[in-house]
Specification:
Distance between the termini: 69 Å
Number of domains: 2
Strand order of the largest sheet: 6-5-7-4-8-9
CATH architecture of the largest domain: 3-Layer(aba) Sandwich
Largest sheet: 6 strands, mixed
CATH topology of the largest domain: Alkaline Phosphatase, subunit A
Number of helices: 17
Order of helices and strands: HHHEEHHHEEHHHEHEHHEHEEHEEEHHH
Helix content: 40-55%
Strand content: 5-15%
Radius of gyration: 29 Å
CATH class of the largest domain: Alpha Beta
Number of strands: 12
Length: 530
């Protein structure tokens, strides 16, 4: 009899352990998913789920490590806490009620009933516990699905759009006329720089103007705006992160590359192309005899930036590794994403001085990084004039950009050079916008030293998006475009309405986010493994 009870007790313990393991696996996955969704919202705020998908599918190589640390610190402890509480409650519940053998006597209308609370009560309690846990989990997951816009995203990608068939203009040589003397181009993409950083008085959304130098440049030169004062360009759907913004501004199409197909991490091999059916700014300028360059203070390999620029325009990649190889920085030097912007500007001056000696026109593209989330990087040349680090980082970025533009203006080759500054996308620092109310955030832009042939009378009160920068850039170096459209973009210096102005932001974004047969067949088709 004793052996029988011992065997029964051992079986019950093993069964309880199996229950705990199964519950741990199932609820552990749920806890991580829910906490990950909460973390994304804390860090990025209201962003499109396409951006979330991109962040999840991008390889970690070249990523600034504090973002990974933040994720681990913000998700894992909370998920473990959730799991421990659930498992602890389950264990206590089962252990207590598995040994209880209670009887409850109930009297109803002179009749007596006896309710025994033994194994049946335990099974009923377990079922009720699992039911409540399931309902709570379903509610939490549904809440996060709605908060992140996953349901909208799924609906969008299931629907089809013919926006490319209807509006995409293939950038052929026959519809573009370059000036006899080709102009140089310096394009400075500024990480997370938007008009919101300016003061309300100057047209921004803040009580303080954190970007006085950039504001002055916009006022003294040409800045496309959605209003009379400093404004900016609309970051359309699928252009809300850096590589997507680079693609949109240089090719006039949204970023719609599915999953990890680009990155060469599939078991079948490695991809060798980046949207091979696409004609970009780099392709056009290379055919016109330009030498193309891409300078950044991080590894060019991150997010496929080097592949994109090399395959479309044969850009020379001047990234973090290039800086190490050419002794611009020590071999073991690495901060934030690679090296600071002030070092990048110094490298740019040295490289441009050499490049300008060549006979060929040049396209020198740069990408800053110090203003990247989560709080930017406060380097040694920055000042501590504001309470928060990010405030000081943004102000420092403005000073450095202003000083670099002043240096450019003093060079002999400046007369024949157009300079463009553009915020790549709106900032993802989520806790910096509590004081702006319903201010309409836009990315910063400024066009400097345009040729006299460019008409700038129609650059205010315009709804211009990232895709429009593609033909606008060519117009800024004196190229005449028949019809004033390339890709899905419109030359913002022309009198022609942009697609955003014609459709409205909501409809335009919806069309961009939907599945496009044209995009897949014309641009992605031809991606191959070897």
């Amino acid at each position: 009899m004793k052996n029988s009870r011992e065997h029964k007790g051992t079986f019950q313990k093993k069964y309880l352990i199996i229950q705990l393991i199964a519950l741990a696996v199932l609820y552990g996955v749920i806890a991580i998913l829910v906490e990950s969704a909460e973390w994304f919202q804390r860090w990025w705020g209201k962003i499109s789920f396409a951006t979330v998908v991109y962040q999840l599918t991008t390889p970690l190589k070249g990523t600034e490590t504090s973002l990974i640390v933040s994720y681990c610190q913000g998700v894992i402890p909370l998920a473990i806490t959730r799991l421990v509480l659930v498992l602890g409650f389950w264990y206590v519940f089962v252990r207590i009620f598995s040994v209880l053998d209670l009887e409850v006597h109930v009297r109803l209308w002179k009749k007596h009933f006896t309710v025994k609370m033994g194994k049946s009560f335990l099974r009923c309690g377990q079922g009720l516990f699992l039911l409540l846990l399931t309902l709570l989990s379903v509610y939490e997951i549904r809440h996060e699905v709605e908060a992140l816009g996953i349901d909208d995203y799924i609906e969008e990608v299931r629907e089809s759009s013919t926006i490319h068939e209807d509006y995409y203009v293939i950038p052929t040589e026959s519809i573009m006329k370059f000036p006899d003397k080709k102009r140089n181009l310096i394009f400075i993409y500024m990480e997370s720089i938007e008009n919101t950083y300016a003061s309300v008085e100057d047209g921004g959304g803040k009580p303080i103007n954190y970007i006085p130098e950039l504001t002055q440049l916009a006022n003294e030169h040409v800045s496309i705006s959605n209003k009379d004062k400093i404004g900016g360009t609309y970051p359309n759907e699928r252009s809300g992160w850096t590589i997507a913004a680079l693609l949109g501004a240089t090719a006039g199409v949204p970023y719609k590359i599915p999953g990890n197909e680009l990155w060469g991490e599939a078991s079948a091999g490695q991809y060798t192309e980046f949207l091979p059916g696409l004609t970009t700014l780099g392709d056009i300028l290379e055919k016109q005899g330009y030498q193309n360059y891409f300078l950044c203070g991080s590894e060019g390999e991150f997010a496929g930036r080097d592949l994109y620029f090399q395959k479309h325009g044969n850009y020379k990649i001047l990234d973090y590794n290039y800086a190490v190889q050419n002794n611009y920085i020590p071999e073991d030097y690495f901060v934030f994403w690679g090296y600071e912007d002030h070092k990048m500007y110094d490298i740019a001056k040295r490289e441009l001085t050499k490049i300008a000696q060549n006979e060929e026109p040049f396209n020198f593209t740069m990408l800053t990084v110090d203003t990247h989330m989560p709080a930017g990087y406060l380097c040694e040349v920055c000042e501590n004039q504001y309470p928060e680090q990010y405030e000081n980082v943004v102000a420092c970025a403005s000073r450095q950009a202003g000083a670099f533009v002043e240096w450019i203006k003093k060079q002999d080759w400046y007369e024949n050079t157009t300079v463009i500054l553009l915020g790549d996308h709106n900032s993802m620092v989520n806790n910096f916008w509590d004081d702006i109310g319903d201010f309409q955030r836009r990315t910063y832009n400024c066009f400097i030293n345009l040729p006299e042939t460019v008409d700038v009378s129609n650059v205010k009160k315009r709804d211009v998006c990232t895709l429009d920068i593609f033909p606008t850039t060519l117009a800024a170096i004196g190229v005449e475009i028949d019809g004033d459209r390339l890709g899905l973009g419109t030359n913002a210096f022309s009198q022609r309405s942009t697609l955003v102005e014609e459709m409205g932001e909501t409809e335009f974004d919806m069309q961009l986010s939907r599945y496009s047969k044209y995009y897949n067949e014309q641009f992605i088709q031809g991606l191959r493994l070897y």
